[in-house]
Amino acid sequence: STIALSDLEKLHVLGHGNGGTVYKVRHRRTSSLYALKLLSPTASSDDRRLLTRETDILRRTSSLPSPHVVLCHSVFHLPSGDSAILMEYMDSGTLDTLLRRDGPFPESSLSDVARQVLHGLSYLHSLSIVHRDIKPSNLLVDSDFRVKISDFGVSKVMCRSLDPCTSYVGTCAYMSPERFDPEAYGGNYDGYAADVWSLGLTLLELYLGYFPLLGPGQRPDWATLMCAICFGEPPEIPGDASAEFRSFMECCLQKEAGKRWSVKQLLSHPFVAGKGSELSDL
Ligand code: ADP
Ligand code: MG
Questions:
Q1: Which candidate, 178, 181, 154, places its Cα nearest to that of 257?
Q2: Would you say the CB of residue 35 lies under 6 angstroms from ligand 1?
Q3: Is there a catalytic annotation at residue 144?
Q4: Which of 89, 146, 193, 224 is the most buried (most CB within 10 A)?
């Protein structure tokens, strides 16, 4: 049965982002909970474009969903001309919320996170979708510690022509070196490797408790970040990390896209392979 917007009762705000707000909502008749993403009335035309892009991508993923990509139930078309996205509600928020609440993650949890995000990325890449904004606040979690990729505002469907993806839309902090400078770091650049870089930074942030390219408490600005990403060494991995975890992050955090491991290769890396509940990864 399809759900109408009028069947939903707004409960509270789950999160704000670029021009949009995500609400927790309840279906009146069934009491089922959902997340509803709406543009705010003051949203710019750029924000509107991002939401349109997101609905396009979600439509591509809805026919055969992945357990590691947030499920989109429907897209509503509002009288204003804007769209609203009804998604499954993830009851533990994001990896960013968990980091702020509970502090850094142990390696065993990070192995779970890495494997699940890799499965989600493998699915997206198989549909020619590059996410381009993998970071803790775009990785949703539920109370069973199931991790799902969300927020497709700046994602891109790759076409055959090589597009260096040089738009700076989204968060530049997690952006890979080749997205700033395709000539220096692109190599056999295919776009997909950018998500692997962002995954590496995300895992390192969850391990350290702060964003790895800046010191603890350092304020991010575009110029500092671009210099750190393009001219700096890859972020240093702390000495107390296990050999497997260190190796995994080194495979993700190669500055040259061509040297970075692919999602498929990483899925067989000892840090993630043969561990955890493989059943949940189907
Ligand atoms: P933006 O493009 O504005 O960053 P997101 O889709 O990332 O939008 O959503 C913003 C925030 O809303 C997220 O960081 C998260 O805290 C919350 N959120 C989004 N979707 C869900 C969901 N399905 N379940 C629970 N919380 C969500
Ligand atoms: Mg987001």
A1: 178
A2: yes
A3: no
A4: 193
User: In this structure, what DSSP letter does residue 11 have?
Assistant: E
What pLDDT is recorded for position 17? 75
Write out the DSSP string of 137-169. Answer: GGEEE-TT--EEE---TT-EE--SS--------
Neighbouring-strand partners of residue 27: 8
Q: What are the pLDDT digits (tens) for 77-102? A: 888 878 899 999 999 999 999 999 99
To test the pocket of ligand 1, the residue of 13, 22, 42 to mutate (highest count of ligand atoms within 8 Å of its CB) is 22
- With a 6 A CB cut-off, is 170 part of the ligand 1 pocket? no
Q: What is the pTM of this model?
A: 0.90
Q: Is 31 exposed, middle or buried (0-12, 13-18, 19+ CB in 10 A)?
A: exposed
Between the alpha carbon of residue 195 and those of residues 45, 132, 244, the distances in Å are: 26, 6, 20
pLDDT digits (tens, 9 = 90+) for 31-79: 999 999 998 777 888 888 888 888 888 888 888 889 999 999 999 988 8
